Amino acid sequence: MTVTTSQDTAEQPVRAVIDAVSAAWVDNDVAAFVAHYADDATAVLPGVALLSKAVIRTAMAAAFADQLKGTRRVHRVQGVRFLDDVTAIVISRSVTVDVGENEPGDGRWSIATWVLSGRSGRWLIEAYHDCPAA
Length: 134
Description:
Blueprint: H1 6-26, H2 30-34, E1 37-45, E2 48-50, H3 53-65, E3 72-84, E4 87-97, E5 110-119, E6 122-132
Parallel strand pairs: 1-6
Antiparallel strand pairs: 1-2, 3-4, 4-5, 5-6
């Protein structure tokens, strides 16, 4: 028998955002991808800082049309922590899986930190930071 805790129930909508972003990546759907980002969201990746939803949209549209076309992004959530009722921090082990690949090697995984806020009855990504896993 599986027991569902209030923590599990609280995490479900936060985890659903990360799942939706991953699904949008698979579809190379930039509109669906950025729909989960706040207007003033930031995304910090190795060597680049994207400092608004508009900038994230432009960067991802270019990437989906080129080097990320046909890839998928896997996010294995390691933990969800709530600072209060409207702020969640998520840590994931993440990787981009290339076309034709089932599972990438260990050397390509990264650790990501997500900060989400509950606004108007939905969770939005406020900040995303990704760095190579040690």
